[in-house]
Amino acid sequence: MTILVTGAAGFIGSHFCVSALQQGLDLVLLDNLENSSIKVLKIIEELSGVAPVFEQVDVRDKDALVAVFDKYSIDAVVHFAGYKAVGESSADPLMYYRNNVAGSINLLEAMKEQGVHKLVFSSSATVYGEPEFNPYTELHRKQPFNPYGQTKSMMEDMMRDLCDSDSQFSMISLRYFNPIGAHVSGKLGEDPKGIPNNLMPFVTKVAVGELKELGVFGDDYDTVDGTGVRDYIHVMDLAVGHIKAINYLSDNRGFEAVNLGAGKGYSVLQLIETFERLNNVKIPFVIKPRREGDLAAYWADATKAKQLLGWQTELGLDDMVRDSWAWQSANPNGYSDN
Ligand SMILES: NC(=O)c1ccc[n+]([C@@H]2O[C@H](COP(=O)([O-])OP(=O)(O)OC[C@H]3O[C@@H](n4cnc5c(N)ncnc54)[C@H](O)[C@@H]3O)[C@@H](O)[C@H]2O)c1
After folding, report:
1. Is residue 13 in contact with ligand 1, taking CB distance under 6 Å?
2. TM spans, by residue (predicted)?
3. Peptide bond into 135 cis (omega under 30)
4. Rounded to whole angstroms, how far apart are CA atoms 233 and 236?
5. Ligand 1: nearest atom to the Cα of 58
6. Ligand 1, closest atom to CA 14?
């Protein structure tokens, strides 16, 4: 079985590729390298022992995408490629709709034209919006309140409609909670360009001295210590979830949305305390006002992932903070040389 992996050089895609290649899966890696480094390919090879096949293609370029399907005999697709910054999506929504929705339509059309019926998609807990109840189950209504979340929700709707229109299709949308951590080797990790949007890369960049202090947005939420609570998931657990999803698609048809989370929440201050204690570094932080659009607390009900895919998290917060720091401390500049 040959799997096309879009966004393969990115944070989550690269960790998936290492796991999947180690499992003996046959992959074609695709990325436009807009938010990733070509160096990742060498590291994937080093860690997996397999030299990956790579195509530098933009999914917004339909002809180039179709040429990849023509060149290889693709059986399934794992679609990571896209933009992911919530704030940026509010500032430039059309850029997000063009890449995450129009790019995904190109992919779905290419799959349909070429008779490729299996897809695993990177969705997000952002599709749920304000929690009506916690933890979120997959039955929670979808009501994203930013363009990024809308793009994920729209793609899910397209996948469902496509599966309803043709019973040969089998597609899974994986709704990630908060992926952090890095490969245990410390050689592969998250390397956001510019000021990070997510908490963990911010923490590691403060720890390494690149940023002066961490801003903690809000300490008056109705949570254990007043700071926001999130469900953190190790990126290697996430990688395994995708392999289980591919296996599921081999024997099943139709559309499913599945939460991938630990089923447990930690506050910002708990994460900082764990990071400082286990890694023996200080994280200076200042409390700032709440950020518009931030939710107080949410975490996953991961029961469906266990029942449907036979997946659950194996790694805990300790592993996440250790591996994130091992990566950042060994690579203070990420993949760049200076
Ligand atoms: N990291 C998170 O916190 C998180 C949470 C939920 C969902 N997701 C989703 O998971 C996916 C992967 O996220 P990530 O954290 O690895 O992000 P990332 O930015 O590290 O990886 C995305 C990759 O896609 C590539 N890419 C972007 N647009 C492309 C295009 N038009 N054509 C080809 N390649 C393109 C980028 O160069 C990058 O290598 C994204 O779809 C994201 O929305 C991420």
Report:
1. yes
2. none
3. yes
4. 9
5. 32
6. 16
Going from the N-terminus, what domains does the chain have, and what CATH number goes with each? Answer: 2-181+232-261+300-313 (3.40.50.720)
The chain-wide mean pLDDT, for the chain, equals 97
Of 147, 77, 154, which Cα lies nearest the Cα of 112? 77
**Which pLDDT tens digit goes with each residue over 161-215?**
999 999 999 999 999 999 999 999 999 999 988 888 899 999 999 999 999 999 9
Angle at 176 between CA 28 and CA 159, to 5 degrees: 65
Torsion region of 49: left, alpha or beta (phi above 0 gives left; psi -120 to 50 gives alpha): left
| Cβ of 155 less than 6 Å from ligand 1 | no
Query: 73 in the Ramachandran plot: left (φ > 0), alpha (ψ -120 to 50) or beta?
Result: beta
What's the gap in Å between 198 CA and the centre of ligand 1? 13
Q: Is residue 125's pLDDT more than 90?
A: yes
Q: What residues form DSSP beta bridges with 26?
A: 2
Rounded Cα distance, 20 and 106, in Å: 25
Q: How many residues comprise the chain? A: 338
Question: Is 96 a residue of the active site?
Answer: no
Nearest CA residue ID for atom 42, ligand 1: 84
102-106, 163-167, 195-199, 286-290: the lowest-pLDDT one: 195-199
CA distance to 12, 69, 84, 204, 239, per residue, from 328 (Å): 16, 36, 21, 6, 20
Rounded Cα gap, residues 262 and 232, in angstroms: 7
**Ligand 1 pocket mutation pick from 80, 123, 176, 198 by most atoms within 8 angstroms of CB:** 80
d(CA 41, CA 31): 11
* 324 touches ligand 1 (CB under 6 Å): no
